[in-house]
Amino acid sequence: MKSIENNVFWITGASSGIGRSMAELVIEHGAKVIVSGRNLAALENFLSKFPNHQNNILPMAFDLGADFDAEDLAKQAVNRFGRIDFLINNGGISQRSQTAETPIEVDRKIMETNFFGNIKLTKAVLPIMIQQGGGHIAVTSSVVGKFGFPLRSAYAASKHALHGFYESLRAENYEQNIRVTMIIPGRINTDISVNAMTAEGKKHGVLDPGQATGMTSEKAAQLILKGILNQRKEIIVGKFDTIMVHIRRFFPRLFYYMARKIDPK
Ligand SMILES: NC(=O)c1ccc[n+]([C@@H]2O[C@H](COP(=O)([O-])OP(=O)(O)OC[C@H]3O[C@@H](n4cnc5c(N)ncnc54)[C@H](OP(=O)(O)O)[C@@H]3O)[C@@H](O)[C@H]2O)c1
Fold first, then answer.
1. pLDDT per residue as tens digits for the range 53-71
2. Which of 85, 91, 188, 262 has the CB geometry, 3.0–4.6 Å to 13, for a possible disulfide?
3. CATH for 8-261?
């Protein structure tokens, strides 16, 4: 693997799951990392877990779905580490609710967190990357950023929106050495379904069977980091379930049938 020692990563959604595994991996490889999420205790846990790397870790808690000051956070990050080489926009929340039963407030909350919070941070970091001569933005979408799926209408919409936004950004900023990678996980064994929003705006609270049998977050993190360092535009990561992306593309009628029949949990 290409050396990432002393490169500066900013990873959102680092308090658990895929983001946590990615943060651990880059810390182990000697990178400097800003770890973000809402759960400050979970972020500060990196400091005790990696006592020899404490100077390389900056926990920075904020809520992607709230009115956070992205410019100020970016300024703090640069004050600490001097630059930002990789922004891994990974934080997000899923959904487990039927469209017909979901109030618009829940749809908005998912869009605020997964889309607006995500792009707000990018808009604060992008000028810094341009000024320093380049940088790499990776964004965790989902296979449902490629197609719609039951119980995930707002979630799928938020992930589709990310593709439109970041494909535009990629084309606009190529000459300034900005590279963009879309990460497209299938089912990864994390708490994503436990934390997913229900129609009542509460946590689903259940580790769905699809999640429990998914790829480990450690394995996913390794494949994702390798793909980012190889400057891949898209990284599809997961087990056999990711075949749905290709079925949707090449056999759409079969896909529409399967989407109706497959257990969405
Ligand atoms: N696991 C899968 O099967 C799967 C599949 C496709 C895509 N994904 C995507 O992968 C990404 C990571 O999810 P995961 O699977 O690792 O699930 P996870 O364990 O639930 O992690 C989600 C992360 O996002 C953060 N987050 C959620 N809401 C936030 C908010 N309002 N403000 C700031 N941070 C917030 C959480 O931190 P706090 O709770 O500390 O805020 C947590 O660190 C998500 O974007 C998800 O959509 C996952």
1. 999 999 999 999 999 999 9
2. 91
3. 3.40.50.720
